[in-house]
Design a protein that fits this description.
This protein is an alpha/beta fold. Helices cover about 40% and strands about 15% of the residues. It has 2 domains: about 190 residues, TIM Barrel (Alpha-Beta Barrel); about 70 residues, Sulfite Reductase Hemoprotein, domain 1 (2-Layer Sandwich), CATH 3.30.413.10. It is built from 11 helices and 9 strands.
Length: about 300
């Protein structure tokens, strides 16, 4: 079965929008634009004939199908590579600019742009330049970042840096792993940056630390396994000692703290905390809320 036929089978059955990449086979472009795809991606490095690019853009314009101009440092147009002396940030942006000009010739502007590189430094510089050059949405990614955990670090370093600067509209982690890992990484990054509402577990836990009075690694791993499937926004703290002790977290955060004096079990939340404080508002060890506040405004805590 040809690629197009396979794709035609997938599109109507897919629960998520399908975006079709077009590499080399430009004759597929118009047919893909007509086939119900939610979007197309063109790689300027391997679709090089202006008349073919205009043809795909015209068809997409008539069908209302958006296109991503997906520049990749590994497949940069040879002329541009030579002109800039390599896959520099300026070369990546120039490639997108040239491609965009063909689209504009046929009055097509429903475009987003990516300028990916496997080098995090190159990718960050390219996107910064792209954000100053184009008004179009930018799709972020560190391409071919590799397997976990290094690929995750590279992707996060590049994408998070740009998102923190307000650059980027969509993203993709490019990991040598199950695609589910890519989607999870993207979701979690948006959650930790506060760009998306958290849906599941946020586990706060001590590092290996000389003060820890419990095996925080073991407890934290157990908590992760037990709670990660929860489909509710929950924040759990696993603390190794009383340095960042009782009262050190938000009142609705369940926590497990090591140490003889501290709360030795998973704390279920504010109701039990109220019972623990008693009617006069004093804690189990007779300290008032004010005393506890003083304690935590004291000397700097551990790492
Ligand atoms: S609370 Fe601070 S000092 Fe205590 S175990 Fe955790 S990191 Fe170490």
């Amino acid at each position: 079965m040809t690629r197009l036929r396979v794709s035609a089978q997938i599109v109507p059955r897919s629960p998520v929008p399908i975006v079709a990449d077009i590499h080399f086979h430009v004759e597929d472009g118009p047919r893909r634009a007509r086939g119900g795809r939610a979007g197309l991606r063109l790689n300027p490095g391997n679709l090089r004939k202006p008349e073919e690019i205009r043809l795909v853009a015209s068809e997409a314009r008539d069908r209302g199908v958006p296109i991503r101009i997906g520049v990749n440092a590994g497949s940069l147009h040879p002329k541009i590579y030579e002109q800039f002396g390599g896959a520099t940030p300026e070369a990546l942006v120039e490639s997108a600019r040239v491609e965009l000009a063909y689209f504009e010739e046929v009055g097509f502007s429903d475009v987003k742009i990516s300028v990916k590189a496997s080098s995090v430094a190159t990718m960050i510089a390219a996107y910064r330049l792209a954000s100053q050059t184009f008004d179009h949405p930018l799709h972020l990614g560190v391409t071919e970042a590799g397997p976990l955990p290094g690929g995750l670090l590279k992707g996060t370093a590049g994408i998070a840096t740009l998102l923190a600067e307000g650059i980027g509209d969509t993203l993709r982690y490019s990991l040598t792993a199950d695609p589910v890992e890519e989607a999870n990484a993207g979701r979690q990054l948006l959650e930790v940056l506060g760009l998306r509402e958290r849906k599941g577990l946020d586990l706060i836990a001590c590092p290996s630390c000389g003060r820890a009075e419990v095996d925080v690694i073991k407890v934290a791993n157990e908590a992760q396994i037990a709670l990660s499937a929860l489909d509710v926004p929950i924040q759990v703290a696993v603390m190794g000692c009383v340095v960042n002790g009782p009262g050190g977290g938000p009142p609705r955060r369940p926590r497990h703290r090591g140490g003889q004096e501290a709360w030795p079990s998973l704390h279920p939340g504010p109701d039990r905390a109220r019972r623990r404080r008693g009617r006069d508002g004093r804690g189990a060890r007779g300290r008032s809320q004010e005393d506890r506040g003083r304690r935590h405004r004291g000397p700097p805590r551990g790492p």
